[in-house]
Design a protein that fits this description.
The chain is built from 1 helix and 9 strands; from the N terminus they run αβββββββββ. By secondary structure, the protein is mainly beta. The chain has one domain: Jelly Rolls (Sandwich), CATH 2.60.120. A 5-stranded mixed β-sheet has the order 1-3-8-5-6, with no helix packed on it. The longest helix has 19 residues. The protein is globular, with a radius of gyration of 15 Å.
Length: 140
């Protein structure tokens, strides 16, 4: 039963490391998929007939959603706590959007036409003291 210990230990190391990093460093990952086993994750499913969804949260979370090549995506940051950040990642885990962080990221948006079909990721980082973030994801 060494696996639960390893998972607990790696989670602890991540939490301690995240606590010591500046607020935007954690979101500027080269590949967000490296965090999939240590950060809470949620799958975004759009309600039937809807093309946008609003997310409000205060925990570190990776949001995963499926999108198709040719669709037009908009990520709008409605509100961010002082150390919170939100960033969009492509199907290959690489950053797509700017790192929206702190009050400087509020009210900003990022749009693009998607060139690949697959799972995309949004990392909502609440910082070590659980700052809230609020964003709207639209796909048409």
């Amino acid at each position: 039963m060494k696996h639960p210990f390893i998972i607990t230990l790696s989670s602890l190391i991540f939490i301690l490391g995240a606590y010591t990093l500046p607020e935007s460093s954690i979101a500027q990952l080269a590949d967000v998929r490296t965090l999939l086993n240590s950060v809470h994750k949620s799958r975004i499913v759009f309600p039937r007939g809807r093309t946008s969804i609003n997310i409000r949260d205060g925990i570190n979370n990776i949001y995963i959603f499926r999108a198709n090549a040719g669709q037009f995506l908009t990520l709008r940051v409605n509100a961010l706590g002082g150390r919170a950040s939100v960033m969009l990642y492509s199907v290959n885990g690489k950053p797509l959007s700017p790192d929206f962080n702190g009050s400087e990221g509020e009210g900003k948006s990022f749009s693009l036409r998607l060139n690949k079909t697959g799972d995309y990721y949004i990392f909502g980082y609440s910082g070590p003291t659980n700052h809230f973030y609020n964003f709207t994801l639209s796909i048409k």
